[in-house]
Each structure stands twice: as C-alpha cells, then as structure tokens.
Give the backbone structure.
Amino acid sequence: MSITFRKLHPLFAAEVSAIDLRQVHDRDTLKAIRAGMDEHAVLVFRDQKFTIQEQLDFAQRFDGKLHTKTGVSAILKNRLGDAPIGDISNVGADGKILQADDRKRQYSLANRLWHTDASFQDPAGRYSMLSAQVIPEVRSDTQFADMRAAYDALDDDAKASLEGLTVHHSIAYSRQTLGFEFSQEEQDRLKGAVHGIVRTNPRTKRRSLYIASHANRILQKQLAEGRLMLWELMAHATQRQFVYSHEWRVGDFVIWDNLATMHRGTAFDDSKHRRELRRVTTLDLAYEFESLGTAETV
C-alpha cells in the first residue's frame, strides 16, 4: 500500500495520506510508517475509527510490546478497564466532566508540562499513539518539540558537556512541582528510572536530547547545578522554532516518537468542554534489539 507524507512543520511532523490503519497488516506498509516516524517523529492520521481493542491491536502490529505501567495507574483505577490504554480525558467513571478538585483532574494537570511518555520507566516509552474520540468546540492543542533539532542547535561545547550524563526521571517529581500530594505507598510505586541525557536512534543514528518535566536530577552533578542545567535545556528545546502545535479533530490518530520529541497539552476550559482521547505507548526496546543486530525490526 503506497503512502505519502505532507510536512506540517519545517523541521518535523507530517500528515499521512488517507489510510485505514485497522486494515494495515502487511510488512511493507508498516515498515514505510516506521520510516516516516524516523524522518518526521510525529505522524498524523485522519479519520481513524478505532475501538479500544483495534487500537491495541494496531499498536502491537506496529511496534510490539505495550507499556502497562502508566503513572496514573498507581493512584487511580482506569475507567476504560485493565487494558494498557491511557484515558486522557476530563471525564470520570460516571461519564460526567470532572470537578475542579477531583484527584484525577489534579493529577492530569501536569500533562500541560513538557514531558516524554514513560521516561520514568525502564524500559521507557518509544511510540505513543493517541486517538481522538471527543474534541471540544474550543482549541485544545497538543504541542510537540523536536528534541533532535534542539540537540543539533547546541554548539560543540554544549554538546560535549552533556556526554556521559544520566538523569533520574520521576513522574512523582513532576506532579509534586504542581503541589500534587502522594501517599507513601503511591510514591513507593513510582520510584522512577535513569536514562542518558542524550540518546541515539539505533536506525538513523540521529541524536536527541532526552529530558522532560519528569527529569528530577542529573546524577553526575550537584542537585542545584543539575536542575539549572535541565531547566536551561528545557527552555532551549521548547523555543518556537522547535515546536509544532496539533489542532485536534475527531478521528485523528497521532503517533509520536518519545525518543525524538517532548509534548504537552494546552489549557482549555475543562469545566465546560468535554475531551476524550485514548493513548497507547509501546516499550522502547531499541537498544536491546540493536545489540542483537536486528535494529531493522524495532
């Protein structure tokens, strides 16, 4: 099946020609989509009519194993069931819009921070796939930042200063910066993970900054110095020239590479406007596959 890509931003992000992903099973088409991900990092598919199971099935065909340990699962029951699918909505189990003080809403406010899905896990998240079910009448964009371009834009001295640095990522940390309170049991379930501050796509060899609001501390630096470095890198990476804003339509299906991008939701009046999206994230097993000499399959 032949597919084409229309660029949505000078640096990254593309809209894919008409295709029904529920019907995509052949290796060549899946390989072409993966190649598009390597080039564009964010792909937009229009008019996808996924059920939950169909979205899960496609994600597994496309990239193998799925993340099951979402951060919110440590504190709340998923209203969509036990499947590894994230409920990115402002709706409760009763189907009503959440109240301002609802714990799920308070937790979800941190989605407005720049972040990388499942960077607080090991293995981390590779591809995230978000399906738009209900969209408000007002803008409720998701913004993406190209971390490859942000890395490329650093001067040689800045790049050299990052070599060998590792960062602890904690979803509890990112929520606590907004005042969200965890029980001790919840914090024990959200211990976080350590990843390199610069990572490399095993297929293209292109390097990216790997930072996020979950990034708590640089292990090789004093706490204050390391956090200042992280904040400065975040400010650099989220400059306008590196950012694409996606305006949602019902039926949109957006895939992004967490190795190559950060993202965040933008604010809208969520006390009046209902929004429901469903997310699946795959496991980032690139380095394991690369070491086995089968990087083409990841």
Remarks:
- Residues 287-298 have pLDDT under 50 and may be disordered.
- Residues 140 and 267 are 7 Å apart (CA to CA).
- The two ends are 20 Å apart (CA to CA).
- The chain has nine helices and 15 strands.
